[in-house]
Prior knowledge:
Blueprint: H1 3-10, H2 17-23, E1 28-31, E2 37-40, H3 42-47, H4 71-80, E3 86-96, E4 100-112, E5 119-127, H5 128-163, H6 171-193, E6 198-200, H7 202-212, E7 218-220, E8 226-228, H8 230-249, E9 259-268, E10 274-283, H9 296-308, E11 312-318, E12 321-329
Parallel strand pairs: 7-9
Antiparallel strand pairs: 1-2, 1-5, 3-4, 4-5, 6-8, 9-10, 10-12, 11-12
Keywords: ATP-binding, Kinase, Nucleotide-binding, Phosphoprotein, Transferase
Catalytic activity: ATP + protein L-histidine = ADP + protein N-phospho-L-histidine
EC number: 2.7.13.3
Amino acid sequence: MDLDELYRLLRISHVQAQGIVDTVRDPLLVLAGDLTVISANPAFYRTFATDRDSTIGVPLYELGNGQWNIDELRLLLERVIPHSASVFDYEVLARFPDVGRRTMLISAQRLIHPDNGQRVLLVTIVDETTRRRKEEEKKNILIGELDHRIKNLLSVTQALARQTGTAGRTAEEYRDAFLGRFEALARALDVSSRAIAARLPDLVRSVMEPYLAEGTHVSVAEAPSVELRPAYAMSLGMILHELATNAAKYGALSVPEGRVCIDWELGTDDDGGPDIRLRWQERGGPRPSPPESVGFGTRMIRFAAEFELGGTVELDYASEGFVALLSFPRPRS
């Protein structure tokens, strides 16, 4: 929840102010006109190693051992705020006995307290060290996903080269056939990474187009047509692309005689709600075996199935061929 949203909610008279304050994840203070603390959230107590008794009713500059008596903070609260309704990401440096030196980004906004009409000041505090750590974690996740996708793309390109038949073709004909499949792969990647609405079976055929070009490696059943919301289409496209990539690297699409069949049916879940049950079945490829450890691709498939589609996925490494069973709620018309 950002400061503008908090301000909007606090202006609604029937909302309990303290309840809203408590939901904010970053440290937050509500100050009276004389800068006495009248409210704080749990995040403030945790971050700055303090408690309610040591905070509520205490002037801001006297909190702790005077750690908040900071020149930059005084400038913000005594000179900037009186002439501005709000200030965002004002940098302040401070040192705290129990948590050490901190670079903080402080945002402040004046408002009228909905319970008593008193003029108050909302102050949110973002620990720059924590923010940078979170950004570093996000960056590492993105780098990991990029590395995974690049390796997958190279593996799929090699598989396309192997599967593009050379018999009876000149070098130019082979080049044109291979480039055609590579362009289809680019379109499939675009479909699986964009939030656009789609229908089954169109989505399946779009993602699997690189492997349908030769006409025999992949079969898509004439199953019921279902319209998917953009978020569903993107998540299902990512799952299908990941399954196809694994099949091209290790499974049925890695050998000329391998085949993949994709079909689905409409049914109801255990609670009687409508659902979609999609089956990915491989035949004719190398004998599958369960991975010794769960890789990035498998984690992505499970995350997309369970948390983004709200369904389940079963991965069966049967001796006759790998099978994936995906079930998820059917969008209501």
